[in-house]
Write a structure and sequence with these properties.
The protein is mainly alpha-helical. Helices cover 33% and strands 0% of the residues. It has a domain at 2-38.
């Protein structure tokens, strides 16, 4: 199923003129790294992050993503 989803995403991207796809994989998840590698994804840099400890939910409407759920 995962390979079919990646293929569908690649086709949809190509239809829209998008030629670079990114896949976020957490470093300890070696199975996900192997899967994405087998689909042609490879390392292209390093993503650094910092957890501030301040977590909150964001309403989609607040983020400009459409109406809030009813």
């Amino acid at each position: 199923m995962g390979a079919a989803l990646v293929s569908a995403a690649e086709r949809a991207a190509a239809e829209r003129g998008i030629h670079l796809l990114h896949a976020g994989v957490f470093a300890p998840d070696e199975e996900a790294v192997r899967f994405h590698s087998s689909a042609g994804f490879g390392p292209r840099g390093i993503l650094l992050s910092k957890d501030s400890g301040a977590h909150r939910s964001i309403d989609p409407a607040e983020a400009g993503g459409g109406p809030a759920p009813a």
